[in-house]
Amino acid sequence: MITYIVRRTLYMLPLLIIVSLISFLLIYIMPGDYLTRAQMNPQVTQETLAQMRAAYGLDQSVLVQYWLWLKQIILHGNFGMSFETMRPVFWTLFMGGRLMWTIIVSLTTMLLTWMISIPLGIYSATHQYKPSDHTLTFFGFLGLSIPNFFFALVLLWLLVAVFKVGNHGLGVGGLFDNRFIAAPWSLAKFGNLLWHIWPAWLVIGTSGMAGLIRYMRGSLLDTLSLQYVQTARAKGLPERTVIYKHAVRNAINPLVSMLGMSLPGLVSGSLITAIVLNLPTVERAFFSALQMQDQYVIMGGLLFFSLFLLLGNLIADILLAWVDPRIRYS
Amino acid sequence: MKKTVLVLLGLLLVFSALAIAQGYETMPADAKIIPLGQADTPYADAQPGVRGGIFYCATISNPKKWNDVTAHETSTTQYTGLMLEGLISTNPVTVAIEPELAKSWDVSEDGLTITFHLRQGLKWSDGEPFTADDVIFSFNDLYLNEDVETDTRDILVLPDDSYPVVTKIDDYTVQVTTSVVFRPILNSMGANILPKHALAQYVHKLNPDVPVGTFNSAWGLDTDPSELVGMGPFIVESYTPDQNVTMRRNPYYYHYDPNGVQLPYFDKYVVLTVASQDVSLLKFRNGELDALGIRAADVPILKSEEAQKGFTVLVNPDLPNYGTSWIGINEDIGLAEGTHDNERALFRTRDFRAALAHLVDKQAIIDSLYNGLAVPQWSPVSYLSPFYAGRDYYGGPVTEKDAVIFEYSLDKAAELLDGIGIVDRDGDGWRDYEDGTRVEIELNTNAGNTVREGICLIVADRAAKIGLKLNFVPVDFNTLVNKLFASTGELIILGLTGGPEPNNGANVYKSDGGLHFWHYSAADNPTEVEKKIDELLDAGVSTLDNDKAFEIYKEYQITLAKDDLGLVYTVNSAFTYAYYNKVGNGNLSSPVATPGGGGLADICYFK
């Protein structure tokens, strides 16, 4: 198993290099560059633009730029500078606790989604084709089909225009109300954080619940039709024990590997919600780099997301082997 | 022993707290008094206020750095502009030039030397004295230093490609000498002054221990805010990405109100970073923001809540924002490739461009795309500029008596096209060139800008009514800019930023300008009209007499609008703003200055 993990980890390196080359070429193919906006400024002369282009190395050919960037990484572990902030790319992406907030928001949302979806999936499967099954499925799909940005905006609008939370001194969007922004941590501040974070749980959570409920439902239904479940029932075991001790434990296997696969979703996958709800996330920093064509920050972000994707896959495989004794890697 | 240490530590804390809180002991003799509420001043409609409170406003993007010299965009300069001041400034109400760090200046007889007399006894926000050395440092070691990456250098360059020479006469006198008379230099000398004592260490020229270019990354977002020093009303105190920037009062700010109260009135000035304008609108309605720049589309909903929630929605359909919005007609289309001969000949015909100008249904654009909150535009100079040709005299009232108006008229457009032989030759309803091929022109704008896309649709629709085929194709912004600079676009709808100084458009309107994108070949072979424009622009900067310059720029604007027509102007959005009534002096808001836009930040207060 250990050699397997080491081998998989080593495979990641060439893969990441290929990803980086393709990404670099794609950024190059994108029309314009970081200085395109400055070009439209009447006060900036062509000489200044040419100077800046040379200073940023944008006057070189794409392969030379890529090679210089790669060389810096190999020799100095330097992933380049952001043109905008003149600071290292990962600092620009992660500064001010963005990485921490991203993980806090995603992890709590994921936990909640799983804690709600799995029981609902089980309930749905055990009440197949009953009205309650249809109702759950309906609401699950409703959450899936409402666009996140729209849901988030409607939610904020409801809070402001209908419930008028402003009259109670409560704010919307962001992490804290104005009065808590600079205040030291306290119970009140933590409570305020919860007030600001629940819309994110609701918006991101509902979009992922339908999938999980259906997976759990389908998987459990498959299991319930297996012979060992019939055997268990025939032995006269109570239905509760049959479902939870025998069926669910096997039915949950595919979902455990899904858990690993959702690792990349922890750092990416909530961009639109983060923009509307004004949450500080790595993805927003990446998105604004994309808009400004701050190319090394884009590269840094892509590598970071790719790494999480690869790690997520690896963890999914490991988890699968761990929960299912039939699977062995060599 | 332990006790003594503790006592000493305690004392140290008390003293350091005092050091932070202290300001001037008495009002400096050279303080700048803002005549709030005094008749016959620009501030007659304002009130002296009281100190205290935290002001909240919002912006779309994060700052990129705290370095004003190397900053390119407003997401950074909205903060650095509050931290710093220049020798002179523009009055937030009248836009006239007025003394700032310099209390006065003299211009020599020949107009080549300006002597600035600095205010004395002023201090930087950290308590260090402000002197002529800071001015010399800012110009000679930063703006005019080739190692420093700054676009301010581009507004300091003189017509003969030299730069002004800035010299120190004594601690409070600075002299600027130019090789030729250059009217805008006074304005350019208003560039922000930076603290030598805090920044000299990053400049290779002054501190050879640091590599060349170190200054370009000085004062970044990772700099401890306590190191940031300024002369402006507020200094950055803390920054949380995607959340907010908090600025604190500068204890040594030198603006005072008529009652001798030191400005700014607000204790803190907080700018929330809100990426979505829909959400900032909600936050304003929720009472979380004290003021907000709003879109025309937001006006109806805010108006309906105005009385109930106690805020004011400022809507002035006659007061457009800075900037221009236009259809560019590429007179060089296909020149390099030897193609598009028909189009090129057509685009180079003045009457075709005039016909196009008659096709811009400005009223329809204003009504359907701007909720009525925009004004027709005809001049390259912004409406708010004292040099705007619609004014009666320099800085005078706008009467538009000399405006060049191409009123919306299908008949006139059709007549002009008929006159140049662009008529329907095969009876298919579309106009053709002389050789019988159909006139078919591509009209581009940047995809996603719904207003510009709407303008394209309206213009193409009106053109179709007289048989002129315009095909609207939206393209990505960067692709569009590339098309513009490579001269491969046909008709392009875009906009440019503007300001009070007409010469800032020289790069666009001069025949050899870097942004003369509708006719780059004019650099080698300008038309008679373009030669005249070049001459007028040169004349406009070589007189120091503003009234004389006004007449020159008036002729320049009329010539451009009537005869050149390389750009056909569309409309300009009107100023819209909202603030809670508790914000005193918010009524002075204009496109030039708002409480949340910085310009009024020091004189607004909570009632």
What does this structure look like?
The complex is a heterodimer of chains A (330) and B (607). Chain A is 74% helix and 0% strand. By secondary structure, chain A is an all-alpha fold. In chain A, helix 8 crosses helix 10 and helix 13 runs antiparallel to helix 17. Chain B is of the alpha+beta class and 607 residues long. Chain B has 17 helices and 23 strands. Chain B starts with a helix and ends with a strand. At the A-B interface, helix 2, helix 3, helix 8 and helix 16 of A face helix 4, strand 9, strand 12, helix 7 and helix 14 of B.
Short description:
With 330 residues, chain A is mainly alpha-helical. Helix content of chain A is 74%, strand content 0%. Chain A has a domain of 182 residues: MetI-like fold.
List the quaternary state of the chains.
Answer: heterodimer
User: Briefly, what CATH class of the domain at 98-279 in chain A?
Assistant: Mainly Alpha
Overall pLDDT score of chain B: 91
Could you name the CATH topology of the domain at 324-573 in chain B? Dipeptide-binding Protein, domain 3
Q: Any idea what the CATH superfamily of the domain at 324-573 in chain B is called?
A: Dipeptide-binding Protein, Domain 3
Number of helices in the DSSP assignment of chain A: 17
